[in-house]
Amino acid sequence: MRTFLALASLLAYCASLVSATALTYKLDANERACFFTNVQHKGTKVAFYFAVQSGGSFDVDYSVTGPNERVILDGTKERQGDFVFTANDPGEYRFCFNNEMSTFAEKMVDFEIAVENESRAQLPSKQGANPEQTSVLEESLLKLSAQLSTISRNQKYFRTRENRNFSTVKSTEKRILNFSLMEVGLMVTMAGLQVFIVRFFFQGARKGYV
Q: What residue stretches are annotated with the GOLD domain (predicted)?
């Protein structure tokens, strides 16, 4: 029972160290959208992940700006990104996506902003507890947390690839349909032209006999 309470306390404490926001945003053409997060302590780790799920060439411009309008990260025409940086200044951080390069294509962007403290959780101690056992349990939970984070990132990656492949298939189907319609139209035009030429020859031949 005490072990269960210790695990529950540790998990609750670990959860309190990380605040994350995961969203899917529809970025219209010629739109610039910004999202904000507040960092309270210097040296806090900030993780930033994004992936363009659909729209255009699956690319977008992005930028991350600190409290003093100092640009921390930026990029143009990127399909996805996964970054971790240390916030050297407490305050408000701005994460922006820019789709002003597109005149009509809207983009669907998945992104996540996570703010976590570098301090590590400590298991509550009890009388007669072995420090080595406590340390092993703590390390196991931290490894488990890292593995879960890796699984989550892999799921996002495969979801992004699935969406892009599905969009490619739809685009290919549309091109095949358009090509087929053009081919049918060309065949009908050629058939009509052949009929017209044959009739023209027969009419000329009749006039020659007359």
A: 32-115
